[in-house]
Design brief:
This protein has 504 residues and is α+β, with helices and mostly antiparallel strands. It is 33% helix and 22% strand. The strands form seven sheets. The protein has a seven-stranded mixed beta sheet. Strands 3-2-1-5-14-13 form a six-stranded mixed beta sheet, sandwiched between helices. β1 and β2 form a beta hairpin. α4 crosses α5. The chain starts with a strand and ends in an 8-residue tail after the last helix.
C-alpha cells in the first residue's frame, strides 16, 4: 500500500489538509474557511473550537478523496498562523476566550507600557523581536488580565496557553486525555517569550509580562524523531499516526522552497506577506526594522536562524477590495480588472489596517488611499491593490539587503497570490531581480510535510528535498530606472500619510 505524508495547514482564513507523495507532489487536499471575528476596530479573533472541528473535517475529506485510510499515513506535520494565541481549560479543553489573531492590535497599551521601560527593543537582544502587538506574549497577558477566571486558572495550573499548532497538537494527540502540550521552536520564537540562545522560555521576560511558565507548552524541534505524540485511533485520521513535524507557516514555506543554504530567501504572498532570508546557525541582529527568528530545527541539529520582514496585509487587501468594497466578485477577477488600465493612474493604497509592520513598526498608522483624481477608476484601484503588495515587499528587501550586506540576486515566491502574473511581473520590475515561482506553490504545507517526513525517515535528508524542487516560471525586470524610481517615490509619500492616525 502506498504511503503518504499529511500536512495540516492552519491558515489565517482557512484550514487545509494536503497529502504529499515522496516526490513532494500533491495527492489530495481539502479546505474549509473559518469565520473572521471583528469585535471592534483593530480587534481580530477566531473561534478555536471551529478551527479544531474544521481540521478534523478536512483530514477526513482529504483521505476520502485519495481513497485511503489513516493507515496509509506515515506521519502528520502541522503548519500554522504563528502569533495567534489560545488559552484553554486543560481539563475540559474549552477555550477561555476566542483566539486572538496575529493581526489584532488590542495589546497596544500593554506594549506601550512594556516599551516605556527600556524602549521598543527592550527584549530584542534575547528574542530578536521588538515589543509590538504582532507577537503572542502580550496577547496572553491581555487574556489573563481581561477574561474572567483566566488569571486564576493560570495561577492554579488549570489553564494552558499556546499558539494554534499547540492547540491542534494537543487535541490530535488526546486533548484532556493526555494530549501533548508542545510548541516548536519557530512558533516559540514568535511569542516575545523565548530566548533565541537557549531555545527556552526566558524567565525574566515571563516575570516582566506576568505569565506563569506552567501554562506554556514544552518547546520542541520542528522535526522530532521522538514524536510529539500520536493521533488517537478514534480521531479524524482514524488511525494511530505520529505527529512529529511543526513549523510556523512562513518558516514552513522556507523549508518547502528548499532554502537550506545561507543567503537563500523566499517571499510568501498569503493573507500577509512574509520574506525570510536564511542566515544559517547565526542569529543575525537587525538594524533596519526586520526581526531575527528561528527558521527551523531538524532533530537534535543546531537551529537555523533567519531574518524576516513581516507585512500584515497582502492577500487580505484583495479580500477587502472584494468583500468590503464589492468591486470584484472573486479574488482572481482583480487581475483582469487591473489589466484594464496601463498603470495606477497616480493612486496608491497603503493597507495599514493593523498598523505598519516591518520595517516601520508603526502601530499608530492606519490605511490610506491617496493620489485620487476624477480620472481614477476601479481599474486603477485594482492595480493599486496589487502594487501595494509588491511595494511592501520592496521595503523589506531593501532592509534585508542592508542587514545582510548581500544584495538579493533572485527571489523565490509562493502562496496563493503568485498565480497573479501581473503582480509577479510588477514585483520583478520593482526589485530589479528575477522572481521565480515553483511548480508546487503550496510550499507552506509542503514544508510541514517535509518536517514530519524527515522525522520518520520518509525522506533521508535535505538533499532529497532540494531534489524535489522544480521551477515553474520566471519573471524578469521589464521597466527602466526612471519609471521604477518614480513609482517608489510615490509609494514612500503614501506611506508617510499613514503615520500618526491613532492618537495616544
Amino acid at each position: 500500500m502506498a504511503k503518504y505524508i499529511g500536512a495540516l495547514d492552519l491558515g489565517t482564513t482557512s484550514n487545509r489538509f494536503i497529502l504529499f507523495d515522496a516526490a513532494g507532489h500533491i495527492v489530495a487536499m481539502d479546505q474549509m474557511e473559518h469565520r473572521q471575528i471583528f469585535p471592534q476596530p483593530g480587534w481580530v479573533e477566531h473561534d478555536p473550537t471551529e478551527i479544531w472541528t474544521n481540521a478534523g473535517t478536512v483530514i477526513r475529506n482529504a483521505l476520502k478523496k485519495a481513497g485511503i485510510s489513516g493507515e496509509s499515513l506515515c506521519a502528520i506535520g502541522i503548519t500554522n498562523q504563528r502569533e495567534t494565541v489560545v488559552v484553554w481549560d486543560r481539563k475540559t479543553g474549552k477555550p477561555l476566550y476566542n483566539a486572538i489573531v496575529w493581526q489584532c492590535t488590542r495589546t497596544d497599551a500593554i506594549c506601550k507600557q512594556l516599551a516605556a521601560d527600556g524602549g521598543r527593543d527592550r527584549f530584542r537582544a534575547q528574542t530578536g523581536l521588538p515589543v509590538a502587538t504582532y507577537f503572542s506574549g502580550p496577547k496572553i497577558r491581555w487574556i489573563l488580565n481581561n477574561v474572567p477566571d483566566a488569571g486564576a486558572a493560570a495561577e492554579t495550573g488549570n489553564a494552558y496557553a499556546g499558539t494554534i499548532e499547540s492547540w491542534l497538537i494537543w487535541w490530535l494527540t488526546g486533548g484532556p486525555d493526555g494530549g501533548a502540550h508542545v510548541t516548536d521552536v519557530t512558533n516559540a520564537s514568535r511569542t516575545l517569550l523565548m530566548n533565541l540562545a537557549t531555545l527556552d522560555w526566558d524567565p525574566d521576560i515571563l516575570k516582566d509580562l506576568g505569565i506563569p511558565r506552567r501554562i506554556l507548552p514544552r518547546i520542541v524541534p520542528s522535526s522530532d524523531p521522538g514524536f510529539y505524540g500520536q493521533t488517537r485511533a478514534a480521531g479524524p485520521a482514524g488511525a494511530r499516526v505520529p505527529v512529529c513535524g511543526a513549523l510556523g507557516d512562513q518558516q514552513a514555506a522556507l523549508v518547502g522552497q528548499a532554502c537550506f543554504d545561507v543567503g537563500e530567501a523566499k517571499n510568501t504572498y498569503g493573507t500577509g506577506c512574509f520574506l525570510l532570508l536564511n542566515t544559517g546557525t547565526d542569529a543575525v541582529p537587525s538594524e533596519h526594522g526586520l526581526i531575527t527568528t528561528v527558521a527551523y530545527q531538524l532533530g537534535k541539529a543546531n537551529p537555523v536562524y533567519c531574518l524576516e520582514g513581516s507585512i500584515a496585509i497582502a492577500g487580505a487587501l484583495v479580500q477587502w477590495f472584494r468583500d468590503n468594497l464589492g468591486l470584484v466578485q472573486s479574488a482572481p477577477e482583480i487581475e483582469k480588472l487591473a489589466r484594464s488600465v496601463d498603470d495606477n493612474g497616480g493612486a496608491y493604497i497603503v493597507p495599514a489596517f493593523s498598523g505598519l509592520f516591518a520595517p516601520y513598526w508603526r502601530s499608530d498608522a492606519r490605511g490610506v488611499m491617496v493620489g485620487l483624481t476624477r480620472y481614477v477608476n476601479k481599474g486603477h484601484l485594482a492595480r493599486a491593490v496589487l502594487e501595494a503588495n509588491a511595494y511592501q515587499a520592496l521595503d523589506i528587501v531593501e532592509a534585508m539587503n542592508q542587514d545582510s550586506g548581500v544584495p538579493l540576486s533572485h527571489l523565490k515566491v509562493d502562496g496563493g497570490m503568485v498565480l497573479n502574473e501581473l503582480l509577479m511581473q510588477f514585483q520583478a520590475d520593482l526589485l530589479n531581480v528575477p522572481v521565480i515561482r515553483p511548480k508546487v506553490i503550496e510550499t507552506t504545507a509542503l514544508g510541514a510535510a517535509y518536517a514530519a517526513g524527515l522525522a520518520v525517515g520518509y525522506w533521508d535528508g535535505t538533499a532529497a528535498l532540494r531534489a524535489n524542487w522544480e521551477q515553474d516560471k520566471v519573471w524578469t525586470p521589464a521597466i527602466n530606472d526612471t519609471a521604477r524610481k518614480k513609482g517608489i517615490a510615490g509609494w514612500r509619500k503614501a506611506v508617510e500619510r499613514t503615520y500618526n492616525w491613532i492618537d495616544e
